Each structure stands twice: as structure tokens, then as C-alpha cells.
Amino acid sequence: MSNKTFTMVKPHAVADNNIGGIIQMIETAGFRIVAMKKVLLTSENAGKFYEVHKERPFYAELCETMSAGPIIPMILEKENAVADFRALIGSTDPADAAEGTIRKKYAKSKGENAVHGSDSDENAQIESSFFFSGIEQF
Ligand code: RTP
Ligand code: MG
Predict the structure, then answer these.
(1) Is 110 a pocket residue for ligand 1 (Cβ < 6 Å)?
(2) Which domains does the chain have, with CATH numbers?
(3) 103 is in an annotated binding site
(4) ipTM for the complex?
């Protein structure tokens, strides 16, 4: 089991000045930020990142939503990082997200759900490599 995961603060949360609030929840939960930057994706690059979802009905909407403004991609470190981070962010749909989760506090809808969180160690590695070369990580 890896001790790293990958996350992005989504455009609406950046636009609403919630980067700090979200990072505070992440750090309070015991995650260490290994790498972080601010990036504006083109719709095409969002499409590459979310290629696994390309057959799903929400794919076009997802690519537009994720390229609507800058995002904050981060690599996070903690024991059991992937599973613990999925628990911290809560359900995809904020209507189902538990109290105390990031999505309960900051998500507006299924599409504008504040943050991304990798769903496996393998995807955490692939997604981290999409944004970071390796030299930033310490
Ligand atoms: P994420 O990948 O962003 O951490 O979210 P997730 O695992 O909870 O959800 P996933 O099934 O991987 O879907 C990726 C993102 O697509 C958007 N989505 N929209 N309109 C819809 O029905 C719908 N379903 C999913 C969400 O923004 C979700 O985070
Ligand atoms: Mg996912």
C-alpha cells in the first residue's frame, strides 16, 4: 500500500477563495503536502486527465467544468493515503456527503464537488505524473 495520493481543488472552489479552507481540512486530517501548484487546464487537457470517463454521459460537462478556471493539483502523503483521503472528501454527490467531509462543506453539486481524490494507488501515481515531473517532490 502506497502512502501517497493525488488531489485537485476544482475551479469553482478556487474561484470562491476556498483553497485555504480546503487545505486546512487536509492538513488537519494529517496529510502532508508533497507537491502543489496552480494550473489552468485546457478542455483538451482535462479530457486527457479524465480519459477513463470518456464513455460516460457527463464527460463533456466534466471537461468544461474542470477547465473553467485554475485548479490546485497536489500530491499528499499519509499512511493509507488513498482510502483515508476518499473518506475525508466524502461522496461524489454533496447531497450524500457525510458531515465533516470536504464535499459536505465546499461542494455545490456533483460536477462542482470541490475536490478530486484518486481512487487507487495506481491511479494516484498516474495522476501525479500528469501534473508533476518528480523534481518538486520532497
Ligand atoms: P473524483 O474522481 O473527482 O475524485 O470524483 P469521484 O471519484 O467521486 O467520482 P467519479 O465517478 O470518478 O467522477 C469524476 C467526476 O465527474 C463528475 N461527475 N459528474 N453529472 C454527473 O452525474 C457526474 N458524475 C460524476 C464529478 O465531478 C466527479 O467528481
Ligand atoms: Mg474518481
Answers:
(1) yes
(2) 4-131 (3.30.70.141)
(3) yes
(4) 0.92
